[in-house]
Amino acid sequence: MATQLAIDVRKLEKNFGTVKALNGLDLQVETGTICGFLGPNGSGKTTTIRILLGLLRSSGGSAKLLGGDPWNDAVELHRKIAYVAGDVTLWPNLTGGQAIDIICELRGDRDKKRIDEFLQIFDLDPSKKARSYSKGNRQKVGLVATFASRAELFILDEPTSGLDPLMEAVFTDCVSQLSDEGRTVLLSSHIFAEVEKLCDTVTIIRDGRTVESGALSKLRHLQRSTITVSLEGNAKKLAEVKGIQDLQTENGRTSFSVDPDSLSDALAALAPLGPRELVSTPPSLEELFLRHYSTHGQSELKAGEQHG
Amino acid sequence: MVSETSVRIAAAQLVGNRSRYTTLSGFWMLVWFIVRRNWLRMLVWLVVLAGMIPLVIDSQRELFPTQAAREAYAQVANTPAVAAMTGLPYAAATLGGILNIKLWMTEAVALAFAVIFLVTRNGRAEEENGRTEFLRSTKLGRHAYSLANWAVFGAFSTVVGLACAALAISQGLPPDGSLLMGASFAAVALVFIGVVAIVGQLCQTSRAANGLASIVVAIAYLIRATADVKAKNDQPLWIAWLSPIGWGQQARSFAENLWWPILLCLGVAILLCIIALRLESHRDLGAGMLPARKGRKSFGAFGRTQLGLTLRLQRGPIIGWAIGILVFAAFFGGVATAMVDLLGGNTPVVGVFAGHSGNLLDGLLSYFVMTTAMIVAAFALQVASAIGTEESTGRIEIQLSGAISRIRWAANRLIVPAVISLILLALGGFVLGATFGSVTGIHGQDPKFAAYSTSFWPSVLLVIAVTMFLIAFIPRFASALTWAFYGVVVLLSLLGNLFKLPSWLVENTPFTTVSKLNANLNVAPLVVLSIIAIVLLTCGLLRFKMRDTKSA
Ligand SMILES: Nc1ncnc2c1ncn2[C@@H]1O[C@H](COP(=O)(O)OP(=O)(O)O)[C@@H](O)[C@H]1O
Ligand SMILES: [Mg+2]
Question: What predicted TM-score, i.e. pTM, was given to this entire model?
Answer without folding.
Answer: 0.69
